[in-house]
Amino acid sequence: MKAQIAFLPGDGVGPEVLAEARRVLATIGRKFDHTFEIVEGDIGGIAIEKHDAPLPQPTIDLCRKSDAVLLGAVGDKKYDSLPAAKKPERGLLELRTLLGNFANLRPVFVFDPLADSSNVRPEVVRGVDILFVRELLGGIYFGTPRFREGDRAVDTEVYTVEEVRRVSRVAFELARTRKKHVTSVDKANVLETSILWRQTVAEVAKEFPDVLLDNLYVDNCAMQLILRPKQFDVIVTNNLFGDILSDEGGVLAGSLGMLPSASVGGPAGFYEPVHGSAPDIAGTGKANPIGAIASAGMMLEYSFKLPELAARVHRAIAAVIEKGYRTADIVSPGKSLLTTTQMGETICKAIEAGD
Fold it and tell me: Which among 120, 131, 127 is positioned nearest to 264, based on CA atoms?
């Protein structure tokens, strides 16, 4: 197959981790006779510097004509004084809207050798395999009115039945391929949008009688993720709650650097590691590229319909971790510390070897 991928390295460690994802795609393409045409574009802080916009028109045009989009990270504290519409993170929100990908998939998988890397007890996190399905285009990040007026600020949470229905269907369909269990997370004891959310998810659940549905308030879910995370299979929730809870999942996995994501539902899938730009470690070789590499693996599965190659990337990551190779965020005594580039090279070797 032949496909064009829009590569958006972004800020901080974004270019470093995306370079390793690119290396993995080149290895996959060479070994299995696929052609991935990589075309780079600007987003975030670097785009502000070069184009005076966090998502400039050339990047918009590139993403519209590409088969998939892979992003590194955006943001830097030096842009904190800019108005919200000009911040690097705004480019990411605009890109999500542009691509129309309403369902954000964030897997939290704990590799057995990393069970002792979490701050949570190994016996609690060992075997955790959760898929967060986060609604991505609605909620408080996009609702209006949104303004600052003197010492008062307003953000608005808005959801429609159709927005909840379509992301819920994605969650139930994915649950059918896993343990057939969906947990819907809301705050229906307080928020009108959450009451609508819970009612709509319950209606969608009737279409999937083979999948178990339960409901949790977001505060209880946050607690249960730490106390008994293995009870969860698929968690579906709104934009804000999904953002926060899936980051909490990074504690279970040992580091946010381990976590990939896929955004689906539009004409071109959008993939990015969950972690931020981490400008404090940019250029030091300390960044973990596994989240970016695993995001490229998700792209192989969801955009290019190559699940066997996605599985090969996952197995290669698992094999490297099993052999004791670590980046700075997950290193422990007796393990081999690798730089960002070395970790990417080692995973590519594992792919070549068929590990």
Answer: 131
